[in-house]
Structures are given as C-alpha cells and as structure tokens.
Design goal:
277 residues; Rossmann fold; 3 domains; 10 helices; 4 strands; 38% helix
C-alpha cells in the first residue's frame, strides 16, 4: 500500500489483478509482498515469477549491457558510478563490469534514510528500518543480488532531497523521472562536490515521473507530507565554470554566507551572478 496509485492503474489497464499488501508486513511473513508474490506464483498454473531479488539474471543483464554501455559512451573515462540499491541488479552488475575494466572506479550506492544498506556496508549489521516515502529502492533485508563487495560507499539521501532533485530534473533538464532517480542524482551531487574537473560521475535515471503524478510531482501531496520546502541543492550547471569544457555541478547545502562569497568571486571574475542556474 506504499506504491503509487498510477502503478496499480497501469497494471489494471493491462488486465492484471492487483493485490495490495501492507507496507508494515515484515520480510518472511505471509503478508509481505515477496511472500505474496511467491504464493500467487505457486497457486497459479503456468505462471512466471521473475524473482528480481535473487535471480542471477538480474545483475548479469546489467553486467552484459549497462556496464559496457557506460564504459563505451564515456570512452573509459568514468571515475564514479552512482545507482540506487533495491534489488541489487543495477549496481551489482554494472559495478562489477566497471571495476573489471578499471579497479579504481568508485561505486556509490544511493539509499534513502531509513533503509539498512549504509549501516550494513559500514558495520555488517542489519538494523531496524524506519519509514521513508521514496519508492523502488532501500530494503529491510539484504537481497542475494546485492553484491556489497562492488559498492565502495553508501550515501543516505532524505525524501525531501530525492523529490526536489526529481522535480528539478524535469524543470531544468526536461527529464521527467521518479523519486529514486532524484535519490541517485542527489547522491551523485554529494559525490561530485569533492571531485576535480577531470572526474566523470555517471548516475542512473531509472524510472518515469508518470508513475508519480499524484505523489511527489503533486504540490498538494508534498504539502500534505510537509516536503514542499526546496532543498538546498541544484541540478543545474555552476556558471563559475562556464569557461571550462564541461560544466561542473554546484554543491549541496550552500549557506547564505557561502552564496554571498561566491557571488563576489563571480563579480571579480567578470561573470553575471544573476545567470547562475
């Protein structure tokens, strides 16, 4: 009952019977969505259960396709890869391939606050989860397809940051995406702010905003969740670097004093600070 209504309506339009399970159900209990899917598959003749969390074809597909595509399109210059951690397929398969090409490539996992992966990566312990609103990433348990050895760091992102970044992508880049894509961008920005101009950071845009028109793309929903306040981050280019070949990304959490100092630097450099994205 956490998934957006658009997803249910989409499936119903294709003729599916949609079974809603409670988000409060714990892994391994009969009402949990994975247990429910397994039960329905067993009870339904000629059914197919993809099992994204455990089936090795999930990370293997990204090892064979996503990883090579990123490597080729960046001409081997990628230095950092950022993706959400959900079933584990994207980050594990892609991370494995990229590290085989260049072991120095850093893989960052984008994870919502409340999920287990950051603590698990740092301590090896699975802690109790707390609720979060972003869909499609984060877990209460570690799925078999999450190959933690390929992940160098896990970056926690708030719901507010995720949704603000998702909305900014639509308004500044024309990319209409879901909340987990915003999580990935927020994590990529967090990584990029400490890197030099030669770094190449790639992150995944993994879903469409059409599934979330009644959620974070709705001002009313954000107001209801008290999340309409813009986060202090930007998906736009930093105009201080417009003389360089590749635009840099502005950092996170810029204070008023930092912004004022930055504006003065721009004026001394002969740039119009009003043009900043």
């Amino acid at each position: 009952d956490k998934a957006s209504v658009e997803k249910s309506r989409y499936l119903k339009a294709l003729g599916a019977d949609v079974v809603i399970t409670p988000v409060s159900a714990k892994p391994g209990t009969p009402d949990h969505y994975v247990s429910t899917a397994q039960r329905i598959a067993k009870e339904t003749p000629n059914s197919f259960y993809p099992d994204q969390y455990s089936h090795p074809a999930n990370p293997e597909a990204h090892y064979r396709t996503t990883g090579p595509e990123i490597w080729e399109q960046t001409e081997g210059k990628i230095t950092h890869f950022v993706a959400g951690i959900g079933t584990g397929g994207t980050i594990s398969g892609t991370g494995r391939f990229l590290k085989e090409q260049n072991p120095n490539i850093k893989v960052g996992g984008a994870d919502p606050y409340g999920s287990i992966f950051k603590t698990y990566k740092e301590t090896g312990k699975i802690v109790e989860t707390t609720p979060y609103l972003v869909e499609g990433i984060g877990q209460e348990v570690v799925p078999p397809n999450v190959h933690i050895k390929y992940i160098d760091d896990v970056i926690n992102i708030t719901d507010g940051e995720s949704f603000e970044m998702s909305r900014q992508l639509g308004r500044t880049e024309g990319i209409f995406c879901g909340g987990s894509s915003g999580t990935n961008l927020a994590a990529a920005l967090r990584v990029a702010r400490d890197l030099d101009e030669d770094a190449v950071v790639v992150f995944i845009i993994c879903d469409t905003g059409e599934h979330y028109l009644t959620k974070h793309h709705s001002d009313e929903w954000l107001k209801e969740k008290r999340l309409l306040e813009p986060q202090k981050m930007t998906a736009g280019p930093d105009q201080r670097h417009k003389g360089s070949e590749r635009a840099a990304i502005t950092g996170l959490g810029v204070s008023a004093r930092q912004a004022e100092r930055s504006a003065r630097e721009d004026e001394r450099a002969g740039f119009d600070s009003d043009s900043r994205a």
